[in-house]
Amino acid sequence: MSNFATPETRFLIGATGSIAVTRLPEYLGALRTAFGGSYTVLMTHTATNFLSPHAVGLSAERVIAREAPEDWPTDKPSRLAADHDIVLVLPATANVLSAAAAGAAPNRLTTVLLATERPVLFFPHMGTAMWRNPAVRRNVAQLREDGRIVVDPVEHADRDVVTGVVATHPALREPDGVVTAVRPALAAS
Ligand SMILES: Cc1cc2nc3c(=O)[nH]c(=O)nc-3n(C[C@H](O)[C@H](O)[C@H](O)COP(=O)(O)O)c2cc1C
After folding, report:
1. Are 117 and 77 in contact (CB under 8 A)?
2. Is 41 in the pocket of ligand 1 (CB under 6 A)?
3. Using 50, 70 and 90 to split pLDDT, how confident is the model at 67?
4. Cα–Cα–Cα angle for 73, 60, 31, nearest 5°?
5. Domains identified in the chain and CATH numbers
6. Ligand 1: which residue has its CA nearest to atom 3?
7. Does the beta carbon of 47 lie inside 6 Å of ligand 1?
8. 113 with 120: CB under 8 angstroms?
9. What is the radius of gyration, based on Cα positions, of the chain?
10. Does residue 18 have its Cβ closer than 6 Å to ligand 1?
């Protein structure tokens, strides 16, 4: 276990609507093995289309997956921001990069991203053309200028199920790569 995280380190994982979110339980396991701590997973509505919050609940202390007013007393954004030590947006869509770079707060996760004063790391996963798009490049640069950490994706080969063609695209790092990226942020926090 790392010296940098305490057993009480409270992780907030913002899970967004990338296909890569289907692997989230694996990442939660790797983070817990490396750092201990407790894990709240805050899923966007789109993320819940890819992965059931109930399945995520098997790997996390808490899962928040709704925007309902009855959740406000416990899950209002300012409280979620205050109650966690570090935020990982994993995986991060082009959409959440855009909202965060603009300071927009259209949902609970993006509101927490505005409200937190803790370290925030984004782990993007998207197609090659999207990642190269000037708008995405601008958003990544803006987030870095604002002090957020955007962890560059790695090239990953996937086979298209219809055409059978294998193509690479910028992908969320493997779990050990995510652990490696988180360690210095924890040390500095
Ligand atoms: C099958 C499918 C896969 C997707 N995968 C990605 C992805 O890997 N990265 C990405 O940026 N957007 C992806 N999208 C688009 C996002 O789901 C869409 O932008 C959504 O509005 C994101 O919402 P969120 O950021 O609030 O979760 C995908 C959409 C579909 C239908």
Report:
1. no
2. no
3. confident
4. 125
5. 10-188 (3.40.50.1950)
6. 19
7. yes
8. yes
9. 16
10. yes
